[in-house]
Design goal:
It contains 6 helices and 9 strands; from the N terminus they run E-H-E-H-E-H-E-H-E-H-E-E-H-E-E. It is an alpha/beta fold. The structure holds 5-O-phosphono-beta-D-ribofuranosylamine (GRF).
């Protein structure tokens, strides 16, 4: 399965996909796009020999035009699944229509709790004792798409966002790779009787 990754920052989730899945028979990362020219994710792609491109919104006539250009490039590269790995932009509905049920995101909280940015800080402020990671399909809302995989971690005394993020990061890497692998194996389906529910074949 050809995978395209969109990332805005460090790209540690991209790196996990490159290290654990890329070029091993089931998954090839064929494109990495970013809205930020200085994203470390772009350097990680280059180091892995994966074509990478910057799509800065100021270079286009607005976000829909930018997203159409990204979608066109991903289609040209033969992308079958789009992975948002720390991509800090909302995607235009027309982009999502070009990749139906084929865009996934990793989020550092147990959705539907704490969607959007600053989710770890929100969770600490709320006083939760269980944190976690969600991998979900992307729909037009903010972190509202059907949940593919979730994993929780007990951190009853957490007060520092940095420490929580460090505890969540390896879970993100594992869960995101697992979801991509399952999709590559065609083991992920939306439940026909409840479109919120994602069925995983065992
Ligand atoms: C991760 O915490 C991910 O859950 C969130 O953005 C962050 C990206 O980290 N969506 P990285 O760039 O993959 O290191």
């Amino acid at each position: 399965m050809n995978v395209g990754v969109l990332a805005s920052g460090d790209g540690s989730n991209l790196q996990a996909i490159l290290d654990k899945l890329h070029g091993r028979g089931e998954v090839d990362v064929v494109a990495v796009g970013s809205d930020k020219a200085d994203a470390r994710a772009l350097r990680r792609a280059a180091e892995a020999g994966v074509p990478a491109r910057v799509f800065a919104v100021e270079d286009f006539d607005g976000r829909p035009a930018r997203d159409a250009a990204i979608a066109g490039w991903l289609e040209e590269r033969g992308v079958e699944l789009v992975v948002l790995a720390g991509y800090m932009q909302l995607l235009d509905p027309a982009f999502l229509a070009r990749f139906p049920q084929r865009v996934v995101n990793v989020h550092p909280a147990l959705l539907p709790a704490f969607p959007g940015i600053g989710s770890v800080e929100q969770a600490i402020a709320y006083g939760v004792k269980v944190f976690g990671v969600t991998v979900h399909f992307v729909d037009e809302g903010v972190d509202t798409g059907p949940i593919i995989l979730q994993r929780a971690i007990d951190l009853p005394a957490a007060t520092e966002a940095k420490a929580v993020r460090a505890a969540l990061r390896p879970i993100e890497h594992e869960l995101l790779c697992e979801a991509v692998r399952l999709i590559a194996r065609d083991a992920v389906r939306i439940d026909p009787s409840n479109p919120r529910r994602v069925l995983i074949a065992s």
